[in-house]
Amino acid sequence: MQHKLIAKNTFYQTLARAATAFIGFLITIIIARKFGVLGYGDFTKVTSYVALFYLVLDFGLNAFFLQYEKPNFKNLFYLRIFISLIIFAILNLLVLVLPYNSSLSSGFSESVRIGIFIFSFSVFTQSIIISTSAVFQKTTNYFSYMISIIIGSVVNLALVLIFAFLNFSIFLILFAFIASSFVSALLLLKLSKENILPPTLDKKFAKEIFIKSLPIGLMLIFNLVYFRADMFLLSLFSSTKAVGIYGLSYKFFDFLIALPLFLSNAIYPFLIIVKNENKKFFNLTKNYFMIFLLASIVIIVPFWFASPLFALIKSDFSGSIIPFRILLLSLPFFFTTSLLQWVLITLGKQKFLMYVYLFSTILNIVLNIIFIPQFSYMACATITLISEGIVFVFLIVKVIRARILLEKKT
Questions:
Q1: 41, 112 Cβ separation under 8 angstroms
Q2: Which run of H or of E encompasses 101?
Q3: Beta bridge partners of 106
Q4: Do residues 17 and 259 lie in contact, with contact meaning Cβ atoms separated by under 8 Å?
Q5: CA atoms within 13 A on the CB side of 117
Q6: Which of 38, 45, 39 minimizes the C-alpha distance to 95?
Q7: What is the C-alpha separation between 372 and 367, in angstroms, rounded?
Q8: Where are the alpha helices (DSSP H) in 139-169?
Q9: How far apart are CA 137 and CA 140, in angstroms?
Q10: Alpha-carbon distance 29 to 291, whole Å?
Q11: How many CB atoms lie within 10 A of CB 92?
Q12: Rounded to 10 degrees, what is the CA torsion of 387, 391, 392, 394?
């Protein structure tokens, strides 16, 4: 029964991701063909910069919210809205001081800054989507989540098609993303059947959950920075064309590394249930570790041979093939660390994860600063592979040691 429920909820999340990814691919192709490698480069700068702040919205709050016996959704909802207001202000103030070199077409131009302001409103819709996902994860029912996300993606595709056909600017394309995520957010709120009125902010709850989630929140922030820093640094130190080439390869790769996240989300509630039964806990971990590993290897093969299709979007994007293949080699690491993260969180090893991702963040940033000026996006892809490999080693060693210690105690 347990495995069937995990499989069902993983299927719903994967189906939602597959549908939105397919629609996302269509949207990516439309934008890339319509605006070319330079236009797509600017689009990538905008979306990648704002996405840097998305995991700050998460901050690990859901993981601890799920551990309450009778969680009050309204407390979580308005805490996240408050956080999103702060993030909205910070990201828009910070972009004002980011550099731009017009001769090299590197950095953040005035039009990119305007685009960031428009797209920054997505932090509010993203806040709602992240919060409501905790409800569906708690009830282990992702069907409503799947429906809401797919409808929002269809709205996005329709708006992008209309705006592209009417030759509207990239700013209206960004608005399409905001509008569609707003649709998904409203649907998720309705289908969650949670009451959010009257508005309130429980300071006691906010303080308590913030203190509990601080280690995992910092871990997620370090994780995101190390994971997204390459695109930001590429925007600063390389041309807009390079950003467009790497941005397209990363767009496809980003879909692939989301797949283990869904399976991990479905497994986490069951890890909590069996965390005090060492044998069951580590058997569950071992079984799904092998599933994650095999799934990543199976996925690499078709995408490796399909990568030359990038050139069909536009010949300018043929350069995306090699960095995409390098990124593919890191899939086994990304798949397995996705599971190992939740295993260690269940075991209360949040501080360890925080230190691991702090180290990997610093290493990633330093390596990118050193090698991007000389090797551009090839450095980004290679450093991503190396960094995630190092994270995998740290996490697998920690899980093995934790198992040995627990077995000795029993």
A1: no
A2: strand 100-101
A3: 101
A4: yes
A5: 8
A6: 45
A7: 8
A8: 143-165
A9: 5
A10: 32
A11: 14
A12: 140
pLDDT of residue 214: 76
Written as one letter, the residue type at 283 is N
Average pLDDT over the chain, rounded to an integer? 84
Q: Is the pLDDT of residue 16 over 70?
A: yes
Amino acid at 229: A
Residue 396 CA: distances (Å) to CA of 90, 113, 223, 285 = 36, 41, 17, 11
Contact yes or no for 128/185 (Cβ under 8 A): yes
Both tokens of 213, joined, read 């989630």
Contact 146, 16 (CB under 8 A): yes
Q: Which of 225, 215, 241, 263 is nearest to 366 (CA)?
A: 225
Q: State both tokens at 216.
A: 């995992």
Ranges of H-type helices in 52-121: 54-58, 61-65, 73-94, 110-119
Cβ atoms of 57 and 129 closer than 8 Å: no
**pTM (predicted TM-score):** 0.70
Residue 322 is predicted with a pLDDT of 94
Listed by start position, the domains of the chain span: 2-409
User: Of how many residues is the chain composed?
Assistant: 410
Please determine, for residue 9, whether its predicted confidence score (pLDDT) is greater than 70: no
